[in-house]
Amino acid sequence: MAIVTISRGSYTKGREIAERVAATLGYECLSRDVLLEASAHFNIPEIHLVRALHDAPSVLDRFRHGRERYVAFIENAFLEHVRRGDVVYHGLAGHFFLRGIKHALKVRVIADLEERIRLEMERQRVDEHTARETIKKDDFERRRWGLALYGMDTVDPILYDLVINVGNMALECAVEMICHAARTPCFAATPESQRALDDLMLASRVRLAVVDCAPEARVEAAGGVVSVAVAAQPGEQEAVVAKVETLARAVDGVAELSVSTHPAGPS
Asked: Which CATH number goes with the domain that contains 24?
């Protein structure tokens, strides 16, 4: 019941690797499907979800509901899928959403910059300067997103269990390495790690339930006991707490709930 997340930039063969790993392990392979499901379920245009996951935060802030709401949608759809285990997810944010989950194998696939530029030139029929700027911009925005949302740098190797440079090996070798790691006992699901994932799932459901009235709410869950910390302006704390409590208590799985407030920043 392992979970494999594969983080990759453009032109790193991440999709092909993920699909082959899933086929070898007999796992489900996910990426855009998560976005499509969230888009359909919450009646949000898919393009907004795509941008929320890949564009720079300055672009996301222009959306009417704010980037926090869209990220909450994606996180919830993602966790609903992977909590069953036996899944390979490729794309941005998987390793963020599964932070602290021990049976999640987090992989980063990298490739030589010059080779990525060459492929961009070939596929888009552009000159070297344009290709280089496109690749650099894409990498920058992915890093900026991670830093803005979670305070984590996407390229930081500490976020991953395995970092593979596909420029130094055949595709089959990368697939074999990932499959071997996924099959080791250290990435097998245990009752403890599954409970941690269930707690993460419950926190995500509560976060999604309250995101409209408290978009920056910090939610933690442990065995059905949920704590929510929200920002509130002076004089509005009681009303905010009451609203959050009503929404959070309606979430299935919430046994106990506490809501605290802290001063809101400038509006």
From this structure: 3.40.50.300
**pLDDT single digits (tens) 87-97:** 999 977 788 88
Number of structural domains (the chain) is 2
Residues 121-143: pLDDT tens digits? Answer: 999 999 999 999 999 988 887 78
Amino acid code (one letter) for 238: E
Euclidean distance between CA atoms 19 and 15, whole angstroms = 6
Q: Are residues 27 and 101 in the same domain?
A: yes
| CA distance linking residue 204 with residue 73, whole number of Å | 9
Q: How many CB atoms lie within 10 A of CB 243?
A: 17
Distance (Å) of CA 112 to CA 54, 109, 134, 171, 255: 21, 11, 15, 14, 50
Domain that holds residue 158: 3-187
